[in-house]
Automatic annotation (TrEMBL):
Name used for this protein in its record: LuxR family transcriptional regulator
Coiled coil stretches, renumbered: none
Entries under SUPFAM superfamilies matching the protein: C-terminal effector domain of the bipartite response regulators (SSF46894), TPR-like (SSF48452)
Provenance organism: Pseudonocardia hierapolitana
A GO molecular function held by the record: DNA binding
Record flagged with keyword Metal-binding: no
HTH luxR-type domain sequence ranges: 478-543
Source domain of life: Bacteria
Listed GO biological process terms: regulation of DNA-templated transcription
One Pfam family recorded for the sequence: GerE
InterPro entries (UniProt xref): Sig_transdc_resp-reg_C-effctor, TPR-like_helical_dom_sf, Tscrpt_reg_LuxR_C, WalR-like, WH-like_DNA-bd_sf
CDD domains: LuxR_C_like
Key words of the record: DNA-binding, Transcription, Transcription regulation
Length: 545
């Protein structure tokens, strides 16, 4: 293929969002002829979108120099801007800052250009990330004014995204969400570049998740999935989309599908190495493993998340609670809550875990003000999910305080709210508390019905720790087991009957494999069976599973 034909094919593929074809055609042309500045820019962007970061950086540097040779300073500044942003995303802050500084020096001081608006964005992001949303909002608004004045679609979308994020961080969720929707509207017109569109999609979904607006997060995740499907060979953004899909599936109770999505995300993000989004994927995987009771594997996932630079709390503290290490869990979650002081979004994400852990530690006095904070935050953010979180925590504290009648009324309201947001696991956990309240009131029939309803959900989900809690509340451990089995042997037999290996049983019960093997041997001996199949049949015959 002649170089001119390859260039033409590359341009056509680029226009069709066929990034892999565009990159291959333009790269082939580049081997035989000198590409124009704009084609170098296309080559660099296509390289970035298919995950060839080094080629993208090289292409942008060459495009920057080519635009300068042509006297197109504005286009050269944009190349330097995007190169700086890409390097920052890869953690190469010194190089990224150098390119952004170079872009700033190229601008003529007295000249009003759209590129000046682009160069406001990094400073505004730094202010937002350092806990100064007010300053960030002012700078993003200035950038938005420039974007409107020049009618630049990418800058319109990025500046409105920043304004929305800053407003949310300032506690003005209503206006913040409206601004985020404006940013998304700019993207859906189709005029925004693929790089800017992907940034807006992912940041908007995270913002919705941070304020517990799961309905809007789900809508935009569906839109992001559809958008990713139309981008041939897309590498960035697709992994984050899979993570968000996993989170939503987890909320709806589709745990096997949620695990499949996040495992796919981990594989997708592993190459090339260094993608910070990989930490988010490992954290989500850790959450699912913890809920299923695979505690040692959950710990490995949290550790990988931390190594990738992603926060591991409150998941790791809740894991310590599940392991029975209540002191470690309480120390960790207290530290996290203290660190989140003054940041409403961060506090909202950890306060529910704080209440659960300090109640387990017997510190009701610490739980009460945390519940008050949750109530206040749920009023500010106006999210049904957060309202359900606050009501659940309030009911748990009232139950611990001995206000059983009041606790039941609040918990019933929380259960209704969880049902409304289609969160079966959280709704079932509330039913455990309702069962406890009914039992303390002497209403044993209602307590049994609540426990049965919760247990069915936990069995469907495979939520082993929650099932164990349901068994404790039902008093199943206190009933004499058939075959002379001990309560721990019954626990082991139940898991063996689900097909779990000794290693998996050990993970679920937080004991060693050697201990599990001894229990299995004792079970075989007491039941007079010679295999796991025989023990499983016994378990089902005697309704132990």
């Amino acid at each position: 293929m002649r170089a001119t034909d390859a260039v033409q094919r590359g341009r056509e593929s680029y226009a069709l969002h066929a990034w892999r074809d565009a990159y291959e055609a333009l790269a082939a042309a580049d081997e035989h002829a000198r590409l124009e500045a704009q084609d170098l820019d296309r080559l660099a962007m296509a390289a970035y979108l298919i995950g060839r970061d080094d080629a993208a950086a090289e292409g942008l540097e060459r495009a920057h120099l080519a635009f300068l040779d042509q006297g197109e300073v504005g286009r050269a500044v944009r190349c330097a801007f995007w190169l700086g942003i890409f390097l920052f995303l890869r953690g190469r802050h010194a190089e990224g800052g150098g390119w952004l500084g170079r872009a700033g020096r190229l601008l003529e001081p007295a000249r009003d250009t759209v590129e000046r608006g682009y160069l406001l964005v990094p400073g505004a992001l730094q202010a937002l990330q350092s806990g100064d949303p007010s300053t960030a909002h002012e700078v993003f608004r200035e950038a938005a004014g420039i974007a409107d004045r020049f009618g630049d679609p990418d800058l319109v979308a990025l500046s409105r995204l920043g304004c929305g994020q800053a407003l949310v961080a300032m506690g003005n969720a209503t206006d913040g969400v409206a601004m985020l929707d404006e940013a998304m509207l700019a993207v859906t017109t189709g005029e925004v570049s693929a790089v800017a569109a992907g940034i807006v999609y992912c940041a908007l979904i995270i913002a919705c998740r941070d304020i517990f607006d799961w309905r809007r997060a789900q809508e935009w995740t569906v839109a992001l999935s559809r958008w990713c499907a139309g981008q041939q060979g897309l590498k960035p953004y697709r992994g984050q989309c899979l993570i968000h899909r996993s989170e939503l599936m987890q909320l709806r109770g589709d745990w096997p599908d949620a695990m499949a999505e996040v495992q796919q995300a981990c594989q997708h993000l592993a190459e090339p190495p260094g993608d910070p989004v990989l930490g988010m994927a490992h954290y989500q995987r850790g959450e699912l493993l913890r809920l299923r009771g695979e505690l040692s594997r959950a710990e490995q996932a949290y550790r990988k998340a931390g190594e990738a630079g992603h926060p591991v709390q409150p998941g790791l503290a809740l894991l310590r609670l599940a392991q029975g290490r209540i002191g470690d869990a309480a120390a960790a979650i207290r530290h996290v809550v203290t660190e989140a002081e003054g940041d409403r979004v961060k506090r909202a994400r950890v306060l529910a875990a704080f209440v659960e852990i300090v109640l387990a530690a017997g510190d009701v006095d610490a739980a009460r003000p945390a519940v008050d904070d949750l109530d206040e935050l749920s009023g500010v953010l106006e999210a049904p999910y957060l309202r359900a979180v606050a009501e659940s925590a309030r009911g748990a504290v009232m139950l611990a305080d001995g206000d059983v009648h009041g606790a039941y009324r609040v918990l019933r309201r929380a259960w209704t709210t969880w049902q409304g947001v289609d969160a079966p696991y959280e709704a079932a956990r509330v039913r455990l508390l309702m069962a406890q309240a009914c039992g303390e009131l002497g209403d044993h029939d209602s307590a049994a019905m609540e426990l049965d309803a919760a247990r069915r959900v936990f069995e469907q989900l495979g939520a082993a720790p929650a099932l164990a809690r349901a068994a404790e509340l039902s008093g199943a451990r206190k009933q004499p087991a058939p075959g002379g089995l001990t309560p721990r042997e019954v626990d082991v037999l139940r898991l063996v009957a689900t097909g779990a290996t000794n290693r998996e049983v050990a993970d679920r019960l937080v004991i060693s494999e050697k201990t599990v093997a001894r229990h299995v041997s004792n079970i075989f001996s007491k039941l007079g069976v010679a295999s796991r199949a025989g023990a499983t049949a016994y378990a089902f015959r005697h309704e132990l599973v």
